Amino acid sequence: MKQVIKIALCSAMIATVSIPAIAAEPFEDEIKARQGYYQVIKYNFGLLGAMVKGKKDYDAAMADTAAKNILAMSKLDNSLLWPKGSDNSKLDNTRAKPGIWENYPDIKEKSGNWKAAVETLAGEAGNGLDALKGSFGPVGKACKACHDDYKAK
Fold this sequence. Notes:
Blueprint: H1 2-23, H2 28-52, H3 60-74, H4 99-102, H5 104-124, H6 129-150
């Protein structure tokens, strides 16, 4: 009888653990990881933006660190976070549009523009508020260029 109870309990535990795994959205891990990637960028860019807008006092060391953090993120190969089909055409947990995979040359160009702007930002952010302001805008424009076409509102 004890053996039957053990088998029943083990079966129930396996079924309980298996159901969420079966019900998980496709590409859930990739989407969560890429959203985390962009949260890190957003946080650092937000610090810089607050300085640019005068909502936060300019701090050269903080600006330099935040810009270099973004630069480090720009150098990651995040291609594993973008499997084809991990878009909002069939999934609810992402705002990525399917056009990302249909227009790869455009994505590559826009990504290159963003990386170049980030490189400039990382070299300028710690050199005074005016230098930060001059290099901040192009990064935002490069982000927007991709978001306008490939990220749903």
